[in-house]
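Structural prep section.
Before we set up the soaks we want a predicted structure of the protein with zinc ion in place, mainly to decide which crystallisation condition to try first. Input record follows.
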Amino acid sequence: MRIVIENAAIATVDGEEAGTEYTAGHVVVNGNVIEAVGEGKASDGPADRRVDATGCLVTPGFVNTHHHLYQWATRGYGQQSTLFEWLVELYPVWAGIDERITNAAAVAGLTRLARTGCTTAADHHYVFPRDGGDVFGATVEAARRVGVRLHAARGSMDRGESHGGLPPDNIVETTDGALAGTAEAVDRYHDSSPEAMVRIAVAPCSPFSVSDDLMREAANLARDKGVRLHTHLAETLDEERQCLAEYGCTPAELADRLGWLGDDVWFAHGIHFSDDAVKRLGETGTGVAHCPTSNGRLGSGFARVRDLVHAGSPVGLGVDGAASNEDGGLGVELRQAVYFARQNKGPHSASARDGLWLATIGGARCLGREGEIGSIEPGKQADLAVWRLDTLDHAGIADPVVALVFGVLPPLRLLLVGGNPVVEEDRMVTVDEADAAVALRTASRQLAEKR
Ligand SMILES: [Zn+2]
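Run finished without errors. Recording the tokens verbatim:
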């Protein structure tokens, strides 16, 4: 299948700062990869499909670097809570998830991501109720159905209340059980090929729900299997206080001690880092998933995005789980990231193009896929978002990137993942949204009743 998209503004995001942009250009897709991109019409050649994208902006598909898809069924809880208060309220609700509920939540969450320009999604799943069935497989199945690339981070918790952890004992695994389950997930699903639709990461949940042994052994397992490492780190000052009291060091120092810094690691949030920690993360190439909406909802603080990027850390954007981000769309995070940075450090600290950069190539770097996705360049995977800027919402904004990032999130003319249409004319091609809504409502109600 050869698809020719023409007459569109194009932001390729192919550079360190602002990448190459075209005002009226073309993108040619051949099979699952990008064949050509440039100004003007595409050179002649057969086309199975020609898209006249006049009035549209083409960007790379967005990359979501942190999520908990199962939480789509537990939105609206703990509305004015700190992270720890919120967790204590939600753990007992999450204890009720099973594979059917998780599947309904994941289909809904991934649909929302696709509808907001996302073509690759990382998910961090760390709740495995004993009678819940195959909740991890249920998420992988949902991603296959929706048609979005999935980086499924196999989470775990082995430190319940009786061992000084935050989660109740009935939702944690044993250390050996968590490691065995994680190894099995890698063996069953991980695909290292450039066009991979599913990759697995090793992802114990957080320092306050996981033992040191599990953190160390998880790092060994990931490096043995050649997959990436992910966890929550430095999200709140409560976490820092607990870490200092318990270990006599900051979360970043603890991560260093446990072998958790490196260019195969990305952390969720990474808000409360000292200058030394930022430097250390940068020199080790450790990545950060910046989740501004979730950080705002929980009042957790401002991540040092600019400092981290300058130090050498890959930084991408994440929506985080829908229980702390009921919107769950990736598009709005671009604006949130820019406005957060400006609110903290003034208007010169971030541009609309910085937002686009974080959402695309920044995220691809976090996931170790900068050679395959995250920019529009020949040879890369054909993950493309074609945004309509020709409606009343954006009329008169001359700069298409400013229109995308600062304006209303535009309708999607087309979203391609590996050359396959997932969204057409702002509607899902792959799933029936009305059916997905019915399944989600049922799942949410059942969870609330189980409580
Ligand atoms: Zn999270």
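Observations: The chain has a mean pLDDT of 96.
Flagged for discussion at group meeting.
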